[in-house]
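Minutes, project check-in
Item: structure for the 262-residue chain
Input as provided by the requester:
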Amino acid sequence: MTDPGAAAPRFTVVVPVFNEAVSLPALADELRDVMRRMSGGYECILVDDGSTDGTAAVIDALTGALGSSFRGIRFARNRGQAAALYAGLHQATGSIVIVLDGDGQNRPQDIPLMVDELLRRNLDLVCGIRVDRDDPWLRRSMSRLANGVRSRFLHDHVRDSGCALKAMRRPVIATLPPIRTLYSFIPAFAAAAGFVVGECPVGHRARQGGTSSYGLRAFLWRPMIDMLGVRWYAARSVLTRDDLMAQDDASVSVPRPARREA
């Protein structure tokens, strides 16, 4: 639990994980090393999506060893990556929220680049673009096809929405509904509310352990079907950037570090 009397950290890192007992310790060490060099303080929320391989015990050990900056959320059963992400986002207290996968393919070392891009260009959401992806050819091909169709249909102008590494200002979270393909449509929902979206090249690595749960259905058919609903929802959304930014400032009940001007 976060101390209600303590100043909120500037950064929140949200990491959904499922059966990542092998890769999570190294990733947590990298996150700690990167985030403690960034000014303003941080919290890291590890969301266990009903893992069956001992991930919950690993998270317990990590939160005990790495201190109060790390905390865990555990689902009793597997509910999907989007549900874990959604739960973690709504526990975030930082004014800047970073999300990444728990399999080690996203590099924590890219987080300062993402945050710098967010602030320097006065953006609200920065999406990573994976450079030299260390994935099988079929997975890269499916991703390119899905991204091309999605970007043209939703007009979010993002080339790699499937990249889990993203940095956003906290008010963006209010635009995100709890749908199963949330990762793919974060830029579309944010852009529909008037938030300014940009991109930043990031590295990509082979999985550090575990096995991927994504196949053709998850990469293509689910996003394609949900894309129709996203377009309908985005066209009718009444959320606006100005209102959400004002609500976020008004909701602050504990002191927070001042935002650095871009």
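Outcome recorded: Residues 253-262 have pLDDT under 50 and may be disordered.
No further action items on this chain.
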